């Protein structure tokens, strides 16, 4: 059976979670492992201080995960099958999944425990919910501890793959302040993860599914369709239909078989469980044919050797049919993966383009608001200076210095009465304008107050939006795509935050800014109208004083009018200054929006590069897997074909003799 290698995401960093079994991350680490390829001596060294089966298995897990590095070159080259995988792993201190699992299994056996290597399906970085699985491409271990079978994946517990430094990774570190960025050169980094030691079966099968369903270690077999559907479907199945069952006697028998016997025993179950895996039946039939031929030639008691050889021929022909069936599935399998990879790339491209378009629109809007705020601010500062200069020459005591004209008017003269009437009329209009100004000022301040309260919410929304986009981008940097939960989670949160919360707040805030600007412009016009009336009253009272210096009430009225004018100027100046500060603050805010939008464009630009890198790497991985499967399939076909031809020659010779 072909032992394909661990798919890329088996070693991507996965946050450690609580697992059912308590583990000791120290036990076993002091072992030197200096005994070369002598796995029995190595096991004795590792378990020297361990008491009990669980402690021994724990020590072996700790030693393997801390001393065996993942073989990245082997991942890329798909190495040839090696008979002594355990010896090779101990010698090189490197391995892929089969090396990790076989070493752990053998060391457990050396320590006196039952253990077995399990072939199965694992969800890697390419796998998405709904993807169909075909050939098992991963291996892990099962070890019997205190009468209970437990699951262990030393490969996933050892560390993770990362991509080495690139010219843009340095920039990303500055943006994200993280180091898990990816370029083109894959490297392995040790990162011990205890959760894959004795993980409970229901959690384990979120990402692992044995080819032989008996190794699910649950009382109810979960269908392969549930596994393909994704985590939510698996958790629901676990909750409704399943619970762990880890002491099946059938497993004890399987553990005592060698690899060929084990495959022969479980092949029918594996094929019945996943009909997309017919090659397992080819292997079974081939092993059986070999066994028949050996017996026919070596057992002297056999009297019907010719019939047995014909049976072997039939088995080999069946093997060829199964191998052909497996090959027929490759185009469908890999075309689906290629089409999906292309679709993911297109969706990501559209999503990124949408963010860029929206942020460019927001940048344009922000720049427009910045120019508007700056222009209004300059006008407001100029207006403030103009208003403050209106105080020049205005004094409540000025009327005492006005000289009486040579032509005087008697008290009660029509001209004097007309002046009084005009002043009274203007005062009435001034009172109306003051009430209008007070209302306009109140309305403007209410909008500003509401904007200030909204601003706090807006800043929090922008901060949250920025954080969500960075998390989504970081998921892309770790080679996740838009179909993965790691991306979908942040994508959903970011989209909801940006388009349903932040954008709504921005619309309200922009509208509030326009409203405040309009209200303050009206308020300034109201103040200006009041100024004209105040000035007209002052001129009228000065004219009255020139015509008549005997009416002393005019002096008091003049002082009151001048004082009111000065107060009106101060009030208008305060309003203008407040408005100028509001404009200055909003200019900074719009500048911040501009920077955030540019930052988002920068982030999605990196996301776009990461997605392109992921898409290319996935395409390359798909092609490599396809090439490997075709090569392995052809190798199997040739092997069976050669055996078939040799057996057929013998059968023909026997028939010829007869």
Summarize it:
This protein is 67% helix and 6% strand. It is α+β, with helices and mostly antiparallel strands and 658 residues long. The chain folds into two domains: 270 residues, no CATH class; 294 residues, no CATH class.
Keywords:
658 residues; five-stranded antiparallel beta sheet; rod-shaped; two-stranded parallel sheet; alpha+beta; disordered N terminus; 9 strands; 2 domains
Explain what the structure shows:
The N terminus is likely disordered. By secondary structure, this protein is of the alpha+beta class. It contains 17 helices and 9 strands. It is rod-shaped, with a radius of gyration of 42 Å. The strands form 3 sheets. It has a 5-stranded antiparallel sheet. A two-stranded parallel ribbon has the order 1-2. A hairpin with a 2-residue loop joins strand 4 and strand 5. Helix content is about 65%, strand content about 5%. Helix 4 packs across helix 5 and helix 14 runs antiparallel to helix 17. The chain has 2 domains: about 270 residues, no CATH class; about 290 residues, no CATH class. The two termini are about 40 Å apart.
Say how many strands there are: 9
Distance between the termini: 38 Å
Number of separate helices: 17
Low-confidence parts lasting 5 or more residues at pLDDT below 50? Answer: 1-22, 165-172, 174-183
Helix share, percent? 55-70%
Global outline? rod-shaped
**SSE run:** HHEHHEHEEEHEHEEHEHHHHHHHHH
Based on helices, strands and strand pairing, what is the structural class?
alpha+beta
Rounded to the nearest angstrom, the radius of gyration is 42 Å
Strand order in the sheet with the most strands: 8-5-4-3-9
Mean pLDDT: 86
Oligomer: single chain
**Strand proportion:** 5-15%
Main beta sheet: strand number and arrangement? 5 strands, antiparallel
